[in-house]
Design brief:
By secondary structure, the protein is of the alpha/beta class. The protein is built from 17 helices and 13 strands. Helix 2 packs across helix 17, helix 10 runs parallel beside helix 11 and helix 13 crosses helix 16. The longest helix is centred in the C-terminal third of the chain and has 17 residues.
Length: about 400
């Protein structure tokens, strides 16, 4: 029996994105029979992000998982540990804080020092900061560009969220493809359509949700994601302004991230303040109803390590218009419309088609449901368990 420690810090500290991915795959992993002994490690708590609820503890998040898996919470925050490991370069192995293990899984880009002989698995979600450095906060960019490639080269094995990220690891860091396993995310069962019928316009659903987030009664295009440059809200707003759909709103759900001010200024300059609803961070429990209430889901991101929101939208029976960049073709396939994320006219035309072409909607909604059903957390957990076994045998 091997001892495996999994860093669940992002599952505790991050509500969306990497946090959700880590929560879901670890929950499923712990529910899968194994001969190994798991331990969860979380670096010390930090203050909640603006617009988000205070984070739960790792014990709370994984309380219903079988097996009474032990949880170790460090007294130092991730920021202080990173200072020890990567700024001061102190040789303090992670086992000092998390306990001795045969394998340590670093789930969020960065691999700390480990004791000699320990095997390691590193998850690299994307290399946005390499492909588009302007998307990363300047204070964080030097750290990422120094520590992530070093971590990737040290790891026994690497998990990538997509084939696109796996290719980037090989092209940019020279990592041999044999050392990388791509594991796609899954879709939780709660993301499902309200009815089996595909109709040109969805029935106006979620009255309570519409009231809570002040969505109004009009049909709307929805996008979900932190307001930051790579999510490409600026192009989306400009494309929305070009559409001849004065009865349709645009709803942007997500916290305020890096360089969001220019989006707010563009909304005002285009006279869209009454039609573009900025509803901030959405409670995870509200997401399925929010997807189902939308008429179209838009995701024109410049770069994604995977792209879970469009997959969840398809699982809820909502047509998707998305970027054709990075990993998104892997997610959407032929079950949605994909366009150049910087082509405003093409994005506007795709949104108009998705809103108004009833025959296309009737065709694509079942295609989206079928495609989304192939992405499961059980499959992801089984693949991760195989990666652990492979790394232990190396």
């Amino acid at each position: 029996m091997s001892r495996i420690t999994i860093d669940v810090t992002p599952a505790v500290h991050q509500s969306a994105g990497i946090g959700r991915l880590t929560r879901e795959v670890v929950r499923q992993l712990l529910a899968t029979p194994t001969a190994h002994q798991y331990r969860l490690f979380c670096m010390g708590r930090k203050a909640p992000v603006r617009d988000e609820k205070p984070p739960l503890s790792a014990e709370d998040i994984f309380a219903e998982c079988p097996g009474n898996v032990p949880v170790v919470t460090g007294r130092l925050t991730d920021r202080w540990l990173y200072r020890i490991w990567f700024r001061a370069r102190l040789p303090a192995p992670v086992e000092v804080f998390a306990g001795r293990a045969d394998l340590y899984h670093a789930t969020d880009f960065v691999l700390p020092p480990v004791l000699p002989g320990a095997r390691t698995v590193l998850t690299v979600h994307d290399l946005t900061f390499e492909r588009d450095p302007s998307s990363a906060p300047p204070r964080l960019l030097p750290f990422l560009k120094r520590v992530v490639p070093r971590s990737a080269r040290r790891a026994t094995h690497i998990v990538a969220d997509s084939y696109a990220t796996a290719r980037d690891l090989t092209e940019l860091y020279g990592i041999a493809p044999a050392r990388i396993t791509t594991i796609h995310s899954g879709v939780d069962a709660r993301f499902k359509p309200a009815t089996a019928a595909a109709v040109p316009w969805p029935v106006q659903q979620g009255a309570a949700l519409r009231k809570r987030y002040q969505l109004g009664d009009a049909p709307f295009v929805l996008t979900v994601g932190t307001m930051q440059r790579r999510k490409n809200h600026l192009t989306l707003v400009r494309a929305f302004a070009k559409m001849d759909s004065s009865n349709v709103n645009l709803v942007i759900a997500g916290g305020q991230g890096w360089l969001y001010d220019e989006v707010l200024a563009e909304i005002k300059a285009l006279g869209l303040t009454q039609r573009v609803r900025l509803i901030g961070f959405i409670d995870d429990a509200d997401l399925p109803a929010l997807y189902r209430a939308a008429s179209v889901f838009a995701f024109p991101s410049l770069y994604e390590g995977f792209g879970l929101p469009p997959l969840e939208a398809m699982a809820c029976g909502v047509p998707v218009v998305a970027s054709n960049a990075s990993s998104l073709p892997e997610v959407i396939g032929d079950a949605g419309l994909m366009v150049d994320p910087l082509d405003v006219d093409a994005l506007a035309a795709a949104l108009a088609q998705a809103l108004n072409d009833a025959k296309w909607r009737e065709k694509v909604i079942p295609m989206g449901l079928a495609r989304a059903s192939t992405f499961t957390w059980q499959r992801a957990a089984e693949q991760l368990a195989s990666v652990y076994q492979h790394a232990l045998e190396m």
